[in-house]
Each structure stands twice: as structure tokens, then as C-alpha cells.
Amino acid sequence: MNPRRSLRFKLSLGFVMIALPLVCLLLYSNYTASNSVREQAAESNKSMIALYSNQIQTALGRESNFLYNLASDDADILSLNKMAYNSTEYALTKLRILNGLTRNHRFNSSSDVQFVYVKAHRDLIHTPIPADTYDETMAMKMCIADLLDEARPDSPLFTEWKVADCGGKPGLIRLVKSGFGDDLGAWVRLDHLMVPLELIQLGREGFAAFVDGSGKAVSDSFGTGSFKEPPVIDLQAKYERLKGERDTYVVVSNPIASTDVALAAFIPEQGMLQNLARFRAFLVWVPPFAFALLLLYLIYLNGVIIRPMNELVKAMRTLKRGDWKFRLNRSPSREFLSVNETFNDMAYQIQQLKIHVYEERIRAQQAELKHLQLQINPHFLLNSINVVYNLAQIKNFAVIQAMCLNLVKYFRFTTKTGQSFVMLAEEMEHMDSYLRIQQVRFPDRITYRIAVEEDVKQVPVPPLLVQPFIENAVKYGFDFMEEPFHVEIQAVRDPALGICRIRIADNGSGFPPDVLNSLRDGSYFGRTDDQHLGIWNSYHRLQILYGREARLTFGNDVEGGALVELDLPVQAPAQADLPREQTG
């Protein structure tokens, strides 16, 4: 059944069509208000970042001007390259340069290190390097020296401040040529430039950071607690949102002139949207309220329409499964009350009709079963008379006497047990008499063994159920055999399945392939001729008495011979109360 055509689906669809536009409108209002606040906050913070960017640019520009003035006006620097490295004059000149750099660096400079590099002597004259350990000082000194050695005349280090990582500390470096073979320069750590930015009110989780030309935040200049890795921002965007570990940030940036970095501010949305707390609280409660109101309406419809419809559908499915005793309760709705009463009346009439049909079927099965049972006795009687006749022809009176004695036992059993069920022990005793008769008929050519477990001897079985299979084995199984024909009958109980399994096996030629295939696919039992009546009768008696609870399988043993297995319930079926034949 297509669920889209159900009443429940249509009502639910109507509920969604009403609730969804309302929820979308509220979400759009919330989104618009949040974006408006973000834009205002981004514009305000961008102005503040631009102010600090200009301050940094001014400080770096003042440092660059000092280097240019020093390179063009300081006589010591201009003449240092022409002096002998080990001369006293070189040492005194170097000392004067260092004192001048140190004095300016202490009072006027915003850089961390100022230096003069004499390329002719590979001598680096620098102010004290701020570091925590001697190793850090040497690492930074070697880094500056390497940058000076690698710098070519057209290097961008001579035109603007560039990012350089020295001793694991990222910073900005700038070089100035003196024109006499000496290079002057300054280096400033980025985290020191960040110190004034800590005064910016960016929220508890907000922070500022330097980003390079690709938009990636420079290491040690951003809040590592908010991002696992340095974030990457779009320098061309007016603002953008980035997701951190603890909050979402609105990011604005501003480039710093004469450098290859930009200054960015990361403002947490949580603090930015605090002014919208009441409005957001109102918007948060409106959708649940609308949802609850519509849900109450849906519950009302469910009680008035959907629940009675579901009960009616459930009742129909129950009747379809065969439970005709199910009845619908009274409904408070007048329309459904009429439907329920009509349904209950219909179910009662169908139940009575089915009972009558079932009784007629039982009577027909009783008549058919009695007919099948009556077919077995004449069938074996004719075979037995034929055996006695053949023995009389050869005048073997001793064998005739043994034959008659076993025939008396055999027909005494059939005369006593003209009933629907006998105990399995009685059936096996009867099979013993039958096989003895066959041994008399074929001396020294037939052997057998009957093994019955104690816990299945009292299992009720239809009389003369096993004989057709043994008779068929004797008739077709041992022609042209040099060794004796052996029949093995076993009866065991399978506790796991709760059945009694009767296994009949022989060492004869087995079933021909075509016959075995017809037995397995059931076509054998659909015949209407009179051939192989015994097995046909046994199969149909099992179907009438047990239905699907009984199983009959055929096969050939690997070592040769036919194999038949009957699986029967350990309890007699309901048909056990069929009328029994009364004998005098």
C-alpha cells in the first residue's frame, strides 16, 4: 500500500505545510538580525584594527627613516668598510657605532634589534638581543647573519618589512643599503607588536593576529586555544566567519603598509550577539510554542479520525490472519460507530460461515482417510495369498506353516487396529511379522534389524504407515544381488525439533534417478493411476492427518540402497478423534 495515500500522511503533510513557513520566517528574522549585528561589529572593529595598523605602520616607518638617516649621515658607518678589521681604529669606530645604536634603541626605537653588517669583514654589529637563554640569542644572531648573507641587491628586504622566523620567533625584518658596502637593518618580534592590541575589547575569547600575504595567521601571533592550526582568512572580504574549537568568530583584517602582513581581529559571536539576547530568547520560544499548538491540533485530529481508522485497519489485518473473534469497540463518533457495528456483524457472519465450511471439510477428510486405510488391507492380502499359492505349488509344507503363522499374527494386528492411530511399538512389532513373512518367502536372502528408542515407543502413528516403504524395497531393491538384502529400521526422537524420526534404509539398488526426482518434487504423488498405491497412500494419509507438521524425504545412500525418512510429531494431531472402526 502506498503510504502517501494514507490519512495519517495527508494530515502530517498539512501540519508540515503550516509549520514550515512559520519556522522559516522566524529563522530568517533571526538570521537577518544576526547578520546586521555582525556587520556593525565588523565595521566598528575594522576601524579599530585600521587605527592600530596605522600606529604599527608609523612606528615601522620611523624605524626605517632612522636607518636611512644613519646610512647617509653617519661618518663612522660610511668609513667602516675601508678600515682594517684588526686595527684599533676599526675597533673604536665599531664601538662608537654600537653605542649610537644602543642609545637610540633604548629611548627611541620600537624594534627589538638594530644592527649594522660589514660585508667586507662579515662582521655583525647589533644591539642586545632579547632572549631567555644564550642558545636563543645565538640562534637569532645566526638567523640575522644568514639573511644578510643571502640578501641580494634586488631583495624585497630592502624595500619593505618582511616576515622572518628567527630562533622560532616570527618577526619583521628590514634592510637598508649604505652605499659603501655596509647594510643596516632592524628586526622586531611580532608578539611584541601585539602587546598594545591586548587592550582592544574583542571579548573574552577574542584576539588579534598577524596574517601573511596568503591570509594564513603567523604562528605565535594568534590564540592557539581557539584553533588547532593557524586559521586562513580571505584578505579581500569585508568580513568572514570562522569556526573555532570553542566559538565561531567574525574576522576583519587590514593590511599594514610597507609590510607583507596584515592585522586581523577575531571577534567571538557569542559576545558580539549579547545585545540580541532578549530578541533571540523570544525567537527561540516562538517555534516551540507554534509547534506545541499545532501538535495539540494534530493530537485532536488523531483522536477523532486517525485512531478509529487505525483500529479499523488493525481489525481488517487481524481478520486477514484468521482471527475471526476480534471485534471493534464502540466509538464516540456517530459515523465510526455505524462503521464498527457493520464490521462486527460482517465478521460474525463470516466466522459462522467458516465454521460450517471447516466442519464439512473435516467430514470429507474423515471419509477420504477411511477410504485410504481400507485400500491397504486388500493390497497386502492379495500379495500374501499369492505367496501361499506359490509355496503350495512346490509343496513346501513347513514353510507354508511358518507363513500361515506369521499371516495370522499379521491379520490379527490389522483386525485389532482398524483405528486412526496405534503406538509405534505396535507398528514395529507388526513390521517384524511382515519381514518374517518375507524371510519365509525368500529364505537366506533377506535380513533386517529394527531399533526403536524407549522414549518413542509410545508415540502415536497411523497404522500400516511403514509397511508400504518396506514392501517397495523388497519388491524393487534386491534383484540380482549376490549378498543378502538387508533392511534397517530405526526410530529416534529429536529433542531440538520435538519430532519422532523413522529411518528406513536398505542395501539394494536404490531409487532410479527419474523416480527419485519425481518423489522429491512431488509430481509422483500427483498421479491418478493405480501404480505404487502403497507409497501414494502413506503420503496422502500423512498430509490429511498432519499437514505441514509431517515431513517425508527420499534419497539414495552413498554406499548404495534406498533411504526414506519420516518426521512425525510426538503428539497425535487433532484428527486423532476420528471415528474408529468397531470390530467384533
Poorly predicted runs are 577-584
Biggest pleated-sheet summary: 5 strands, antiparallel
Shape: elongated
How many alpha or pi helices? Answer: 13
> How confident is the prediction overall: mean pLDDT?
79
Walk across the major sheet and give the strand order: 2-1-5-4-3
Approximately how much helix is present in the residues? 40-55%
Oligomer: single chain
Spatial separation of the terminal alpha carbons: 62 Å
Q: How large a portion of the residues is in β-strands, by DSSP E?
A: 15-25%
Number of strands: 16
Radius of gyration: 54 Å
Order of helices and strands: HHHEEHEEEHEEEEHHHHEHEEHEEHHEE
Given helix and strand content, the structural type is: alpha+beta
Verbal overview:
There is one protein chain. This protein has 584 residues and is an alpha+beta fold. Helices cover 50% and strands 17% of the residues. The chain has a five-stranded antiparallel β-sheet. Helix 9 packs antiparallel against helix 10 and helix 11 packs antiparallel against helix 13. The chain is elongated. The C terminus is likely disordered.
Topology overview:
Blueprint (H helix, E strand, L loop, with lengths): L6 H67 L1 H6 L7 H20 L5 E6 L4 E4 L7 H17 L11 E5 L2 E9 L4 E8 H4 L13 E5 L28 E4 L4 E8 L6 E7 H4 L4 H44 L13 H60 L3 H20 L5 E2 H18 L4 E7 L7 E2 L5 H10 L8 E10 L4 E8 L6 H9 L11 H13 L5 E6 L5 E8 L15
Parallel strand pairs: 11-13
Antiparallel strand pairs: 1-2, 1-5, 3-4, 4-5, 6-9, 7-8, 8-9, 10-12, 13-14, 14-16, 15-16
Helix pairs in contact: 1-7, 8-9, 8-13, 9-10, 11-13
